[in-house]
Specification:
Layout: H1 12-27, H2 36-44, E1 58-62, E2 71-73, E3 76-79, E4 82-85, E5 89-91, E6 94-99, E7 104-112, E8 133-143, E9 147-152
Antiparallel strand pairs: 1-9, 2-5, 3-4, 6-7, 7-8
Organism: Oceanobacillus halophilus
Keywords: Capsid protein, Virion
InterPro entries: Spore_coat_protein_Z/Y
Amino acid sequence: MGCGKKMDTGNCVADILRDIVDAQDDIVENCCDTGCEQSIADLLGDTDTGNGLDTVPIILYCAGDCKPFKGFGAERKVKNGEFGMHPLVASFIFRVKSVDDDNCAVLELLLKDGETCGCDDLKDPCDQSTHDLEATGICITVDLDCFCHVTCLPAISVFNND
């Protein structure tokens, strides 16, 4: 028998957490002010005119070590008809652009307007500014099977920051 009263999934921690949620639901409405469900609801809004929000920023955590995932990329640079690139930048915060049937996702790096987080500048998501995040146009492709956790930040607008 598992250690949870109602459940026996073979995962003692999961069983106990389910029992806790069931008990809490019996006492109060169990809503979060911040989280994926709330961010999606905020993004969709409840009016026909919309609310100006266009992005649910996310932070992903790698499976295995469960550390925050940091993405890297560089903006294209065109000078006198020659193609090159700006210096590499890094971000822990992303906008999901697409997810395919093979669990591959295209993520866009989000950075504060004018921020140029170099590869060594960010050690932790808390080192990155979340004020006035903007789309960078820098996209990476990831295998979603490599992640064990996602944190959804409050919905924002990254295209209409005026």
